[in-house]
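Hey all, sorry for the wall of text incoming. These are the two entities for the joint prediction.
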Amino acid sequence: MEYLTALHDSAFSTWIREAETVWAFPTVLTVHTFGMMLLVGSAWVVDLRLLGVGRTIPIGPLRPLFRLMWFAFWINLATGLLLFIADPERKATSLLFGVKMLLIIINLPMLTRLERAVYGGTADPAVVPGGTKRLAAASAMLWAGTIFTGRLLGYM
Amino acid sequence: MAELITPGNLSHLHLLLNHFPTVGLTVAFALLIVSILSDSEAMRHDTMRPTALGVLFAIAVITLPVFTTGLAAEGAIEKVPGVSKAAMDAHENSALLAFVVLELAGVSAWFGLWRWRRTRRIPPGLTILTFVLSAISLGLMTVAASIGGGIRHPEILADPSTAGAQSMFEISAAAVAFFVNGRGHQWVWPTLESAHFVGMTLWFGVLLVANLRLMGWLRGIPYPALHRLLPWALLGFGVNEVSGMMFYIATPKGYTTNVVFYWKLIFLLIAAADLLYLTVWPQAWKTEAGTPTHVRERLIGAAALVSFVAVMYCGRMLPFLGNSF
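and here's what came out:
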């Protein structure tokens, strides 16, 4: 706990939290939101396709979206870390924050498994491989839960 | 642009824009009737009816800033002697119901266009639904406009003492505001915010992929296949319009005095125009897997993606830029 307090009182944490400039907290928060819509937006499109919406969309050409998701994930890991540094004591002890982290930790391996399940056999599968539907549905729901809990953190 | 956000200018803007849901809706409705009565196959299926639906969708979109500038106009004149708060509330409540029905008509018109692009036919059921909803909306809009006109011109009322009399046809904005931030409703605003983020992510994701194809990327995907996803973007827009309007009605002054909110509206209109373009894009069914796109289409896709990020930026930054909340 004293580590968290020291982090909270550090100059960097104080700057993100309290600096009278839009380039501190507001910009970090906005970039985090941008990463969210890029990551979950492309994930949902892929999940919809795997669940059978837009069956005529070929699955192979959707693969670059996985790279986009990981790119957006790293943006959000970095900005998320900054947001944690700005408010470490309350975040570390918040149940809501814990739930959000748990949802992400469950979902990330699913994202890798999903990519492997879809493209593991062939680069351009003609049909959705069996078993991926349940994975896609679960992953899409976990992302929705992540957005919900993340947004609610703003009201702690 | 901040110096343009004066109470007088916002009232003026409301007086200019309010012709869209009245005059514009009348024009769209007339086009729709002519296309229904016409014997010409071309007018029914190729020219006039799709045009009527497109105009109707556009009117439904542009009525959003009409409603929002209305509450700004109220803030500008509420302290003027002789202006009745009751008349303004009656106008707002009747306009809110007319707006809701118009948005439903806009959704119905959009589905007509979406089907039309794919099959070259607008299903009769959607035509009838659009006709009925736009007729009801036109009637409600007339009532709302008439009450609104009476706010500053009581002389046009048959009985001036009726200014501010309640209309039978209204949605109480006060009740919406109470639902959102009334006593004991602390959970409502955060829940709506979460829904607003989910809706945004949904429409952004779908339109991101469609616009990337428009820009010539993800070229292995035939555009007609992506067209099937567009209703999910409309669903996202719908979630955001409902949640966004609830925020706005609950705390209008947090928005009407902030220049960033008007930027957000402008970029939102561009985003809606992009959805319409992606729906009826003339080259859509010729854009097979591997087909490159024209430089004009690439520019449209790029402008749309920039506008999407700008909508999010303005919304997320509302509390930090300007003077909201």
